[in-house]
Design a protein that fits this description.
single chain; two-stranded antiparallel sheet
């Protein structure tokens, strides 16, 4: 998120760089030369587990929370004015609507809108975290974060799942439909009307709620990775960013060494806590499990620490400011990447699909298909960087 208060002399360059690198990674994994040829680290874990790609979205939500602690800090020690609620609501609504419009760009069917999505989840997490942040102190935010994670864990582990058509088929066939194929599942009846609580794809309580409540198509057919119930722990990720950001601001009155110690200690504690909890509830991005929240939160803190050390302590300033340029207009970069994705991949515009032509040309000269696909995504990301760099140099910050 771009925040006007951060566009000052006190702006954290490291936060911009962290945000920019995260958006760059998001663009790279979303725009390969071919979805059939991708290196494993550039793909999401099929179900349980964690890949570098799985870090991108939680990192961004953590950054959203961290930014909130700066942009809304002046409202925390007094009664918030109505105008700030209006601004928070309006910004959230705009981000949500843009997410819907991006879906319609590729699927122009008003009767079949996919309501959940990346920007939609960002909008919800931003809205709830911002409202909580300006009304509650850090102790209360920590308690709420813990309550969200514990409550979500109990629901996943102990609430039986009603049997619907998808689950009935899974009981009979041992698999459920998902995007681009099927997923094998192992589930057991609890009663004639429900199955036992489980963390299997498509048959868990989160997936059932998505199918039961959400209108329109689901991204994975049987569930949505940005579904309703899994948004609760995603809010916890954003709250973690706000909590750590607030404490980081307090530590700015201390020495740089103290700030580094605080960040490193926090990151390690979150990481260890998440790994311990993963023994009970595995790391899983689709379910956004509590272990996933803590591990990715810990890694986000440590990556930010590295950025802080390089850019705000050592004052490193590269000539090509990719991180700063993309980070200063992160949502704009994300939206532009999808708009151009439609242009580049659409053979109705050019008569050919540019990515397919690139893959054919590199194949003819002997390139490995996975390498070609990766090179294409890097070129595509750099094309996105060009207009964003112009905006950055002109100090133009587009915020939704």
């Amino acid at each position: 998120m771009t925040n006007p208060e951060l566009h000052t002399k006190k702006r954290l360059v490291s936060l911009d760089v962290f945000r920019g690198v995260t958006i760059m990674a998001m663009i790279i994994v979303n725009s390969p030369g071919s979805w059939s040829y991708m290196y494993a680290p550039l793909q999401h874990a099929s179900w349980h587990g964690l890949t570098p790609t799985d870090l991108v979205f939680p990192f961004f939500l953590f950054i959203v929370g961290f930014s909130i602690s700066y942009s809304l800090s002046k409202y925390t020690n007094k009664q918030p004015e109505f105008s700030i609620y209006k601004k928070i609501s309006w910004r959230s609504l705009k981000i949500f609507v843009v997410g819907i419009l991006l879906w319609l760009l590729f699927e122009p069917d008003l009767a079949n809108i996919r309501w959940p999505g990346v920007l939609q989840r960002i909008a919800i997490c931003f809205f709830i975290t911002a409202i909580l942040y300006i009304n509650l102190n850090i102790k209360h935010l920590i308690i709420i974060t813990l309550v969200l994670l514990v409550s979500y864990s109990l629901v996943l582990l102990y609430v039986p799942v009603p049997i619907d058509e998808i689950i009935l088929n899974a009981l009979n066939e041992g698999e459920i439909p998902r995007a681009h194929g099927f997923a094998e599942v192992e589930i057991y009846k609890n009663t004639s009307e429900s199955i036992k609580p489980n963390l299997e794809p498509g048959t868990n309580i989160s997936a059932f709620i998505d199918r039961y409540i959400l209108p329109g198509p689901l991204y994975e057919k049987s569930w949505d990775p940005e579904g309703l119930l899994s948004t609760i722990p995603a809010i916890a990720t954003t709250l973690l960013g706000a909590i750590l950001g607030s404490q980081f601001r307090i530590h700015q009155i201390k020495t740089k060494v103290d700030r580094m110690k605080f960040l490193i200690t926090s990151g390690i504690l979150l990481l260890i806590s998440g790994m311990i909890i993963s023994l009970i509830i595995p790391l899983n991005k689709n379910l956004w499990t509590p272990s996933f929240v803590l591990v990715t939160g810990g890694l986000a803190v440590l990556v930010f620490t590295l950025c802080y050390f390089i850019y705000d302590i050592r004052n490193y300033r590269p000539k090509l400011k990719i991180g700063q340029a993309l980070g200063a207009n992160a949502i704009t970069a994300y939206v532009l990447s999808f708009v151009l994705l439609y242009v580049f991949y659409n053979d109705l515009i050019w008569g050919v699909s540019l990515n397919e032509e690139f893959m054919k040309a590199t194949k003819d000269i002997g390139f490995n298909p996975k390498l070609s696909s990766f090179i294409y995504s890097l070129i595509y990301a750099f094309i996105i960087f060009i207009p964003l760099n112009i905006l950055y140099k002109k100090k133009i910050y587009i915020k939704l």
